[in-house]
Amino acid sequence: MGTLALSLSTFMTVLDAAIANVSIPAIAGDIGVSPSQGTWVITSFGVANAIAVPLSGWLAQRFGTARMFTVCVLLFVLTSWLCGMSPSLELLVFFRVLQGLAAGPLIPLSQTLLLASYPPSRAGTALGLWGMTTLFAPVVGPVLGGWITDTLSWPWIFFINVPFGLFAASVTWSLYRERETSTRKLPIDSIGLGLLVIWVGALQLMLDKGKELDWFTSPLILALAIVAVIGFAVFLVWELTEAHPIVDLRLFAGRNFSLGVLCISIAYGVYFGTVVLVPLWLQQWMGYTATMAGIAVAPIGLMAIVLSPLVGRKVSVWDPRLMAGCAFLGFAFVLWMRSHFTSDTDLMHVMMPAFLQGAAMGFFFIPLTTLILSGQPPDKMPTAAGLSSFSRIIFGAMGTSITTTLWDERAALHHAQLTEHLSSGQGALASTLERLGGLGLDSQQAMAVINRWVDQQAFTLAADELFLGATFTYVLLFALVWLMRRPAPFKGASAASADGAH
C-alpha cells in the first residue's frame, strides 16, 4: 500500500506535466488567449517545480520526510482544484506556479520514503516498481488529457488529481507517521533562494512574453533580460562563497557532472519543446481532436517501459556513453523523420516516430544519470541528483517557450513567402477562387479558405525546420557525450536508474 501511494503521488506529478500538452488549444480558446500564450500553463509549472527541487532535502530534515511529503501532496491537491476553477490565464498560471512548488519535493521525498520501507536487497525492485509509474505517465497523459478535454472539459485534467491525491496522502500518513525521520534545525540559504527565484523567473517571463511584446523593442523585455543576467551573475558569486548553498555549484568542477548535466539539460529541452509542438500542430492545422492528438503522441512511452528494465540491468556492464549516444542518434533519426511531415501526413506516419522515440527514451535517462553521478561521494549523491533534476526541468520549460516562439516566427516568414508566390500566379489564384465560388462561397469566404491553406502550409514548414534543427542538435550531443569518462562498474545502477526515470 505504501509503494502504491508513493508511486501514485509521483504518477500525478509526472502526469500533470504531460496531460496539459494536448489540452493547450482548448484552454487557450476557452479563456481567450493565443495557443502560444496557453503554453505558459506548461512552463510556469516546470519552472516552479525546478525551483522547489533544491529545497527538498532541507524541508525533509527540518519538518520530517513523511510529514513534508503528506503536506506537499495535500497542497498539490488544493492547487489542482484551484487550477480547474481558474477563470483567466493570469489566475491559472498563478495556481500552476503554486502547484509546481508543491510538486517539486514529491519525487525526491517519495524515493526517500520508499527506500526506508524495503531492505537493501529489495531496494532495486522497489525503485523499479516506482520508476515504472513515471514512465507510464507519458503514455497515459496525452490520451487521458485529450479524452477528458473532448468528453468533459479542460478543468477536469486538474480535478482528476483530487481523489487520487487525497487517497495517496491518507495512506502515506497512516503508514509512515510512526516511522517519521528525525528533524533538526538547519540554516537555509535564503538569499541564494531569493536570487534563484529572481533570475529564473525573469528569464522565463522574458521568454514567455517576448514574442507578444516584440522582444527587445519592449522596455519590459529589456528590463527582464537585465534582471536575469545580473541576477544570474550575483547568484553564481553568492552560491560559490556561501557555506550552505541552496545549489552546490562546486559540483560542476567535475568533468562528468558538468558535461552530463549539459547533455541531459539540452537534450531534454529540445525533447520537451518538440513534444509540445506536435500536438499543437496536429490540433491547430491538421484537424485532430485533442483525443486523437493524444493517441498520436502516446506511443512515446511504450518502448521506454519495455527497455528501461534492460537498460537498468546493463548500465553497469555496458558503456553508458555508448548507450546515451545511441539515444541521441535515435532522437536525431526520429526528428529527421518528423522534418518530412506535410499537410497530407496520416496518423500512422505521425505515430511511427513517436513509437521509435520511446526506444531512444529508454536509453536516455538511465545512462546519462549514471554518468552524472559517477565518482560522486555518497554524501553528495542527493545534491548532485537534485541539481541535475533542477537543470533539466528548467531547460524543459525554456525549450517549450523557445520552440513555440520560433514556430510562430518562422511560420510568419513562410506565410509571407507563400503569399508572394501565390500573388505572382494570378491565373492559378483566379482559378481557385472560381472553383470555391462554384461551391457557394463569396469572394471574402473564398479568400479566407485560401488563407487557411497558406497558414497550414506555413506552420507545417516551420515545424519541419524546427525538427531538422533539433536533429542536428542531437548529433552534436552525440559527439559531446564521448568527452565524458567511462565510470567504473558499480552496484548502484538501479538507484541511478530510478532517479533518472523521474
What does this structure look like?
- It is a single chain.
- This protein is mainly α and 502 residues long.
- It is 78% helix and 0% strand.
- The chain has 23 helices and no strands.
- It has helices spanning 2-19, 24-31, 35-38, 40-52, 56-63, 65-85, 89-103, 106-117, 123-151, 156-159, 161-176, 190-209, 219-241, 255-285, 290-297, 300-314, 320-338, 347-362, 365-373, 381-424, 426-438, 443-480, 493-501.
- The chain is globular and about 80 Å long.
- It starts with a helix and ends with a helix.
- Residues 491-502 have low confidence and may be disordered.
Question: Could you write a compact summary of the structure shown?
Answer:
By secondary structure, the protein is mostly helical. The protein has 23 helices and no strands.
Task: Name the descriptors.
mainly alpha, Growth Hormone, Chain: A, disordered C terminus, 4 domains, 23 helices, 502 residues
CATH class category of the largest domain: Mainly Alpha
Main sheet: strands, sense, barrel? none
Annotated CATH topology of the largest domain? Growth Hormone, Chain: A
**Gyration radius, rounded:** 23 Å
Distance N terminus to C terminus? 21 Å
Question: How many helical elements?
Answer: 23
> Low-confidence parts lasting 5 or more residues at pLDDT below 50?
491-502
Question: Which geometry do the CA atoms define?
Answer: globular
The CATH superfamily of the largest domain is known as MFS general substrate transporter like domains
**Average pLDDT for all residues:** 83
Per DSSP E runs of 2 or more residues, the count of β-strands stands at: 0
- Percent helix: over 70%
Q: How many structural domains are formed by the residues?
A: 4
SSE order, as H and E? Answer: HHHHHHHHHHHHHHHHHHHHHHH
CATH architecture of the largest domain: Up-down Bundle
Determine the structural class based on helices, strands and strand pairing.
Answer: mainly alpha
Percentage of β-strand residues: under 5%
